[in-house]
Model the fold of this input.
Amino acid sequence: MPRRVEFEDIIGWSLRVGVLISAALIVFGLALIFYSHGAGTFKLGELIAARSPVNTSMLPVSYVNASNLANLNGLTFTLLGLIVLMATPVLRVAIGIAQFAHERNWLYTFITLVVFMNLMLAIFVIPALVAR
Done:
């Protein structure tokens, strides 16, 4: 008889896969940057300088688009890897909500929902307010 999949297995699997995909995207993006001697309009020297003006605050999430991915823009793959890395613990919290609801543990379901809402505020709302 096949083994029943537990929520802990799903959580562990999702964390491992998220980190591995993120690492692969970042390494691939860095390899493209070094191979192409830059990314998009940025030269390699601008990207690797200790006091580089290029950072994630000047690259909107919309920089990760099909066109940049199809053009093998290394910065796009690196940024996508960072987005996947940030999304991994958010996915863990979402799975936690499902786990506690499945167990009918309403107190922990509510607490985990509050944590999830705080993450959503920190990721989507607060940066928009700070950018003003």
